[in-house]
Amino acid sequence: MDSSWNKFTQFLSYKAERAGKTVVEVSxxxxxxxxxxxxxxxxxxxxxxxxxxxxxxxxIGRNYNSSFVVLKRGLEELLGxxxxxxxxxETEPLPRKISASSVVETGSSLR
Length: 111
Ligand SMILES: [Zn+2]
Prior knowledge:
Distance between the termini: 66 Å
Number of strands: 2
Bound molecules: zinc ion
Order of helices and strands: HEEH
Strand content: 5-15%
Number of helices: 2
Largest sheet: 2 strands, antiparallel
Number of domains: 1
């Protein structure tokens, strides 16, 4: 491996560990051609700056799509399994009601 790249990843890992984070290396191969949403390959030349997927209809910036592919690969690597499609978190009602009298506005005096 290239020595300066090796030093960079060592430094990055060191800083990440100190911050309680994890560094995951992923293959950059095909990140500009892969659709992050459906996973299909969408060939485009370097001059094409937009990712328009004919398979799922995704239409976003080329680099924006690539960043999601990199994130997805990293998370898959970290979790050791395929990810389900990005879905919003399940929402539930609050476990109990909070009465208005227990809510104290910022700056108000407590009695
Ligand atoms: Zn797609």
